Amino acid sequence: MVSLVIPIIMGWGAWALAAGAAPRLPFQQNRLEILGLGISGIAITMLPISYLFKWNWETKYFGAGLLPFASGSILGIYPILCITLYSSLPISIRLALIFFHFALIIRWCYRFVAIYRTIYRNEHLFQYIYNEDSSAVYYSQQADKNVVNKLLKFNQFPSARFVTLSLLAAFSLIPFNTPLSRVIGLPFTHIFLAVAATPLNLMFLGLGTKMWLVYYLYPMKIKKKNQKPVYVDISSKPPMPMPDV
Questions:
Q1: How far is CA 223 from CA 55, 217, 235, 239, in A?
Q2: Which residues, other chains included, contact 90 with Cβ-Cβ below 8 Å and sequence gap of 6+?
Q3: Given pLDDT bands bounded at 50, 70 and 90, which one contains residue 211?
Q4: I need a labelling partner for 7 at 20 to 30 A (CA). Which of 35, 36, 68, 87 fits?
Q5: How far is CA 165 from CA 41, 75, 170, 194, in A?
Q6: Buried b / exposed e across 98-117, counting CB within 10 Å, b at 16+?
């Protein structure tokens, strides 16, 4: 699966960030290094294993090709973890930093949980997105886009303003890279990415949450209730008009 290349690369990047944050710490004591290489190792192992399955359009197979993209969040999460574990900042500041960062992630991802719970509980929206026949249920991507983007006007990506502010904040730190690195005790690369990549964290993890919901959680509920597999329909137009909320 081509998508497994992403976690392989991200795992190597995580290893490099962890090693650069604590160069004097032995590998066996640097849990972030071990975790980074573990992510790459698992993805490499899954490459040949993936060919053992008979892939079709069931949601569980379709989602397996997309969920690995969530590993792109490593680009921003690992610098935060490195600052928390290996910087010379006071422990109170480090704890506040990681609490704020993960509270932001949880709040962002919960938005997806709430919106799809609304869809699942609304009979008209549910039937518009999930079309059932005698042998299967079909999840319509086009119907999903209509409901999420047009009807509910749900923003799945961080706003352009937030992205711009994050980038401006990160680039504004460049003139102070040497004193900042000295105070924080980490290379400036970690500091820059911790600020600039926050929107990427939200984007990748938010979409990862959505993929888990629409390709695994709700198909499992539907299959348990109807005893029918759920397939992905990526191109067909919805068979009925879009309902009102």
A1: 18, 10, 22, 21
A2: none
A3: very high
A4: 87
A5: 35, 18, 9, 13
A6: beebeeebeebbebbeebbe
The alpha carbons of the chain give a radius of gyration, in whole angstroms, of 21
Find, among 217, 220, 57, the residue nearest to 140 by Cα: 57
Closest CA to 125 of 136, 106, 139, 108: 139
- Which tokens go with 202? 């939200």
- Please report where in the chains the tokens 């979409």 appear, as a residue: 207
DSSP letters for 191-231 = HHHHHHTHHHHHHHHHHHHHHHIIIIIHHHHHHHHH---EE
For residues 74 and 204, what is the distance between their CA atoms, to the nearest angstrom? 9
